[in-house]
Structure formats: C-alpha cells, structure tokens
Design goal:
alpha/beta, Rossmann fold, disordered N terminus, membrane, GDXG_lipolytic_enzyme, hydrolase activity, hydrolase
Length: 403
Amino acid sequence: MATNYGSLDGQNAKYLPGAKSSALKVSLSTVVLTAITSLLIVLFGGAAVNIIVGVVVVVYVFAFAAFCYTAVPFASNAILVPFIAINMQLQVVYLLLAFAARGFKPAFPQWTLAYELTVMMMRFAFADYGHLVGNKNAHLLRMPFHLHGKFIPKSNSRLHGTVPEKLEANGMEHMWLRDDPHQDQADPQGEVPDRASVDVLLANYRMAPQFLYPTALNDCFAMYKYVLEKENIAPNHVVLSGDSASGEMTLTNCMRLRDTTPELKPAAALCYSPLVDLGETGGDDITPHCLLAANFLDNSLETYLSSIDDPNKRSKVSPINQNLKDLPPAFVQFGTLERFYEQGLRFKANADSQGVKNMELDLLENIAHDPVMLPTAVSPATEDAIHKGCAFAAKHLAPILKA
C-alpha cells in the first residue's frame, strides 16, 4: 500500500542551576596543582622532575591512543588516523585556550565546559570528515554507540529504578526498560495515578547507507504494531517518542496512522529536535554552534533518500509539507542554536495556519541539536528537556489512566 510517507511493504528555557562554570574553581585547582608540583621539585630535585615527566608522557600516550580510536570513523584509510587524532587534539587545545581567554567561562551562559567541548568537537569532526561518516564509514561511527548501549543499561537502570529486558522481534534485537515493581511509582507532579507504571521500549531499526528510505520508517511502524498486537497494549496508552531523525519518523508514522487506521493513533508524540524538512541543505553560516555540520547532514540525507528519484516524491517525505491536522497531541522541542531551529519554527507556523491546537513548541535557549542524547553530566539541558516532554505526556495520559 503506497502513501505519501513511503511504501507500507515557543518558550525561552530557564537558566539551569550550575550551568555557569566557576572561574574561581578552575583557578584554585591550577594554583594547588602548581604548588604541589613545586613542592615535589624542591623536596626531590631532579628525580621529581623525571617522575613528573614520566607520568605526563604515560598520560599523553593513553590520551593519544584514545584520540586515535575516536579518529577511526573519520579516516579514509588507516594511515590518516594518527594525523586526524593530532588534529583533534589541537582543536581541544584551541577550545580550552578560548575558554581561558573568556575568563574561564563557556561560550554561552547555559553551557558548561564539558558541553562546549562535546558540541564543538562533534561540530569540528562532522564539518571536516562528515562526508565519510555519513556514508562509507557509518558502521564505524556506530561501534562506540553500540558498545555504550550494550554495557550502560544495567547501571542506568539501577539509577532510575528500571529493569532492562531484551526483546527479539521482527528480526532485530530491541530492549524494554520495565518499571521495577518494587519501586514507588508515585508521580511527583500528581498528574497520573500513584500505581501507574511506565515501560519504555527502545525500538531498533535498520539504518542507511545499508538500508535506504523507507526501511527505517517501516521498521519503527512495525514495532508500534508489535506493541499493540503482541503486547496487548491499547494505543491510547502508548506515547511515541524520538529524537532527531527518529523524531521525524515519529511524526511521519503518526500521519500514516491518521490516514490508514486513525483508531490506532497513540495518546501523544514526543519529538526532540525532529528533522521536519529533509530538503533543507547548508546552513553552517547560520548555525555555527550546532554539532550537525552540513558536510555530515547533507551527505547523510542524500544517501538516505537516494532510493527516491522523483523530486516531487522527495518533497512529500518531509513532515513540514504534510497535512498536520488530526494528529495525536505533539510536543516538539528545539534548541535555538541548532540546525533544525528555523525549520522547527516554520513547522509550528504551518501547524498554526492549519488550525492545529494540540501541538506544543518548546525552545531551549542557546542549546545545540538534540540535548537529550547526551548524559546529564555533559549536557546541562538534558534533564530539563526530558522533564518537559514527560510533563506533556503525563498531562495527556492523565485523563485516560484515571478513567
């Protein structure tokens, strides 16, 4: 069955506590380290110098090895790996010097040093080498994320009171994060009943460049149907959620459900930094502080959509060009520094012009693309960003769960 979506075969963010780096702490740490080093030299003379130099060399060797591992996805051949690693190290030094020159303050009040290093290093790598990781080396870029996803669920589940549970379905491995039955399920906002349980399914899907449009879209749709049919969960008890490209798939599959089986629409949709205009290109000069450089994003989208030759059909892929009426309540969130910010504003304007009343636009001031993908230790906006989406979902689920 063919549809427009492929074959079926604002508000300002509040400043967050602790978001501003303390120049005093950095200065005190530097003074203490210098004092300790000087004391060791006075007490032990040349031996202390040799020890310090030896420690520095060992630390650098391990750091360089880590940079080389990081550089692998961005290299067209193995010979270039150490040179790219050195280039990355120089970029880190440049960012640290810029941080010091600003009086040990991040580029924006909402940033931390860790967030600035993460965003700008990703920007640097995608700007210079994005054409490789968006196509030829995509599988290499996924390896660290695969390892992270393999080992981190248990520790995170202990932290958040959930139980990870692997699921084999539709030829792929997925993961449930089940609520721990021994944990208190009370909602701090009082929106949902005390005994409401929230389970999260992390659905897997096949990715480009090996699998082109609409494979990923169909995989996500199939997993939604699996939840309804095999897990026996009512659609009005389901919230679809996705970030970045998955945010686009969330919106598009809601449109598919509206047009084919409206009775199966989910209770709500949460979309963090969703890609809503797949035809937009460039933009590096407008969003210099976003991690999504055009060299990466434009090449990735060209590869993903290479299965569609007709320009008119390509334009229909973008949610921004679709009918936005009669969709589930939707929460869409963007950072004001990200590549998708302007298209997000246009998307909400289109919804308003069509008379849509159940879409909420949330803007995170001075935040780059997709803060929810980063841990809270790195991104100061992560917790607030997720909290707002969860509050939106709770508001729309409350009447259903209380019925």
